[in-house]
Design a protein that fits this description.
Layout lengths: L2 H10 L1 H14 L5 H18 L9 H33 L2 H5 L1 H24 L2 H12 L4 H8 L3 H18 L1
Helix pairs in contact: 2-3, 2-4, 3-4, 8-9
Length: 172
C-alpha cells in the first residue's frame, strides 16, 4: 500500500481522528472548530511532506499524538504573536491623537515639508547621489551593504559618501 493511501486510511480512521482532536483540544483550550480542522489537516500535511512510511511505523498513535502536540504548540505560538501585535497596535492607537485636528494638521504640514525637502534634494543632486542619500541616511545601510546593493567597490562607496556629505553641506 502506498504511503498516501495509508495516510488517507488513517485520516478516515475515527480512532486516530479522535486522538488528534483530543490532543489539540487539550493543548489549546477554547479552540474553534475551524482551527481544529486546520491543525488536524496540518498533522497529515506533515506526514505527507516527510513521506513517512506510517504503514510500518511501530507506534502510529504515538507519532500522531506527538505531531498533534507540536502542531498545537505552533498554533499557540502563531496566535500569541498575532495577539501580541494586535495588543501593541491597540495600545499605540490613541483616539485622542487621531481626533485632535491640531495634531492632524501638524502631521500634514510635516509631511508636506518632508516632500518639499526630497523634491529639493532631487533637483540639487544627481540621481546616483540621491539614491546614495536614500540608502545611507534614510535606510541606514552600511557602506559595505551599499557596495553590495550597487555592485561597486567599498572604496568607491566611501568616496561617494564623502563627496555626498560635502555636497549636502553646500546646499543645506
Amino acid at each position: 500500500m502506498r504511503n498516501d493511501e495509508f495516510i488517507a486510511e488513517i485520516f478516515a480512521n475515527a480512532e486516530f481522528r479522535k486522538i488528534i482532536v483530543n490532543v489539540i483540544r487539550r493543548k489549546v483550550p477554547g479552540i474553534s472548530v475551524h482551527d481544529i480542522e486546520d491543525c488536524f489537516s496540518e498533522v497529515f500535511e506533515i506526514a505527507l511532506k516527510k513521506d513517512l512510511d506510517l504503514g510500518s511505523h511501530p507506534n502510529i498513535r504515538g507519532w500522531l499524538t506527538l505531531t498533534a502536540k507540536n502542531v498545537a504548540k505552533r498554533f499557540l505560538t502563531r496566535h500569541a504573536v498575532i495577539n501580541n501585535n494586535l495588543t501593541e497596535m491597540s495600545e499605540d492607537f490613541d483616539m485622542e491623537k487621531v481626533a485632535d485636528p491640531v495634531r492632524f494638521e501638524e502631521r500634514i504640514e510635516a509631511e508636506e515639508q518632508e516632500k518639499a525637502f526630497f523634491d529639493f534634494l532631487k533637483r540639487k543632486l544627481t540621481k546616483s547621489d540621491y539614491n546614495l542619500y536614500i540608502l545611507k541616511f534614510l535606510e541606514y545601510h552600511s557602506n559595505d551593504e551599499i557596495s553590495t546593493i550597487l555592485n561597486v567597490k567599498n572604496d568607491t562607496v566611501n568616496k561617494r559618501v564623502t563627496r555626498l556629505k560635502q555636497k549636502l553641506r553646500k546646499i543645506l
